[in-house]
Design a protein that fits this description.
The protein contains twelve helices and 21 strands. It is of the alpha+beta class and 516 residues long. It folds into three domains: 97 residues, PAS domain (Beta-Lactamase); 114 residues, Beta-Lactamase; 175 residues, Histidine kinase-like ATPase, C-terminal domain (Heat Shock Protein 90, 2-Layer Sandwich), CATH 3.30.565.10. 30% of the residues are buried.
């Protein structure tokens, strides 16, 4: 027969006298004063542990006063019951082994049933020796935090896994996040515990994510997969792909398990592919329509030449062929290069401008270099920007577009001057030609827009694409809004294209910049 505390007239608890206030420590660590030692102990508010004496067969012989704080039941209810009846069925074997006489491991992490019907995770430490006053072993039961409830083999997986694992409770607040949160999002592990993850979702994605998030919380069968933008610790945004599933009701750590991975690179590739497909579609449409008229001219010219022996129509056909060649070259530039840039490098603005002038400038025009600047960007594509802007300036210098000679106010012809200079927030390209009609300033960058009969309308579209691919801006100077230039630089009154971008101090890491 197993002896119980009630079979003896008195039970001597392990008393520990405090150094200063003569306070007596009870067996489960809760304090009671000598004057009240004869009264039943009250549960300690906020206690996270209790002590029990348990027989080898699992019968509870004694339960400490903090049982209600941990399990929500009266201590008397536990006494006389089989402790294993309170243990989750999946955890009973290791608990039973720890209570046995030949146990090698007497520390067990397991679940105990709570009065609310759920389970709480606890760590039980079983004394090696029997307590003679009870005839059983003293067991210290301590409630553990969410991150300690994962078995050791799973914790190791979470520590070395690259995916972010998050557990949220029934209220939608984070209970646990794996160490990958530091690498994926930059947050210190545990810093978002107790908060709703929805507060970190991009505003444009939040409504969609919120609907699926709460559907997953309330529907155990829902397993949504979502792609959305999430704010990182440094204030940037990354694309996450998250798969969620409900946890069983008896799992104490939370209600929903969310597995997330960073798919920003994949989303960038998808955007580039979509952009390229759109450009190829546009190219096919243009080939179908815009090239039809020049080809018709060539065909008709050749037929007339064959019938009349006249060479003038052949010259018209040659001009049409040149237009087709230019149009195809610019359209292929748009279709093949898209909006991406190569790895940014650092170089001098003036050097790239001179190289572009050597290939796209005119012998009848003059290039003037003002203030220089250091630039971090795609050198090849920025050279293309200058080449297109230079061609635009020289082709529009004279009404007939035959050369780069402009008409002055006195009616005399003069060579065109093109200025390239750094500004307070980037650089500009300006000329002293006729300028841009104010009515056309809003559409000069539109694909296909041109004021010349033999123009393609895609040169400035390419310029805009390259500039914006660097994260910069480009616009046409307006009356009374001259950009900030050095004092010794005078901006001509003709067309003026202003490029703006951050300097090296304001730019993020690996972001292109312009230091004037």
């Amino acid at each position: 027969m197993t002896l119980r505390p009630t079979d003896r007239p008195a039970i001597a608890c392990r008393d520990v006298r405090a150094d200063t206030d003569d306070t007596r420590q009870s067996i489960d660590g809760s304090a009671e004063s000598p004057a009240s030692s004869g009264s039943p102990a009250s549960p300690v508010p906020g206690a996270d542990r209790f002590v029990a004496a348990v027989a080898v067969d699992g019968e509870v012989l004694f339960a400490g006063p903090s049982v209600p704080a941990v399990l929500g039941i009266e201590r008397a209810t536990l006494v006389g019951d089989d402790l294993l009846d309170y243990v989750h069925p999946n955890d009973r074997e290791p608990v039973s082994d720890a209570l046995s006489a030949v146990a090698t491991n007497r520390v067990v992490t397991h679940r105990l049933r709570h009065a609310n019907g759920g389970f709480v995770w606890v760590e039980s430490v079983v004394d090696e020796e029997l307590a003679p006053e009870f005839g059983g072993r003293v067991v210290t039961v301590r409630r553990v935090d969410a991150e300690q409830t994962f078995p050791e083999r799973f914790r190791e997986f979470l520590e070395y896994g690259t995916d972010l694992v998050t557990v949220v409770d029934a209220d939608g607040r984070v209970r646990y996040e794996s160490p990958a949160v530091e690498e994926v999002l930059g947050y210190e592990q545990g810093s978002t515990v107790g908060r709703s993850p929805l507060g970190y979702v991009h505003p444009d994605d939040r409504e969609r994510v919120t609907e699926r998030f709460y559907r997953a919380l309330n529907d155990p069968d829902a397993t949504p997969t979502m792609e959305y933008r999430y704010r990182t610790a440094d204030g940037n945004w990354v694309w996450l792909e998250s798969r969620s599933r409900s946890l069983p009701d008896d799992v104490a750590v939370g209600r929903l398990l969310i597995n997330s991975r960073d798919v920003s690179e994949r989303k960038a590739r998808e955007r580039r592919l979509t952009d390229r497909n759109e450009r190829l579609d546009r190219f096919a449409s243009i080939v179908s329509h815009d090239l039809r008229n020049p080809l018709s001219v060539i065909r008709g010219s050749m037929e007339m030449a064959e019938l009349n022996g006249d060479t003038e129509p052949l010259e018209r056909g040659e001009r049409a062929v040149d237009r087709i060649d230019q149009l195809v070259s610019e359209l292929l530039t748009l279709a093949r290069q898209g909006s991406g840039i190569d790895e940014p490098t650092e170089f001098a603005l003036g050097g790239v401008a001179r190289e572009a002038w050597d290939t796209a400038g005119s012998a009848d025009a003059t290039l003037v270099l003002g203030a220089d600047a250091r630039v971090c960007g795609d050198r090849g594509r920025l050279r293309q920007v200058f080449e297109n802007l230079f061609r635009n300036a020289t082709e529009h210098a004279a009404p007939d577009g035959t050369d780069a000679i402009r008409s002055t106010d006195s009616g005399e012809d003069a060579p065109l001057t093109v200025l390239v200079t750094a500004t307070g927030g980037g650089f500009l390209v300006a000329d002293d030609g006729p300028g841009i009609d104010p009515a056309h300033r809003e559409e000069v960058f539109d694909p296909g827009f041109t004021t010349r009969e033999d123009g393609t309308g895609y040169g400035l579209d390419i310029v805009r694409e390259v500039v914006e691919s660097h994260g910069w801006t480009i616009g046409v100077r307006r009356d009374g809004t001259d950009p900030a230039c050095p004092d010794d630089v005078t901006v001509p009154d003709g067309a003026c294209f202003v490029v703006g971008g951050p300097d090296s101090d304001a730019a993020d890491a690996d972001e292109p910049w312009i230091d004037g």
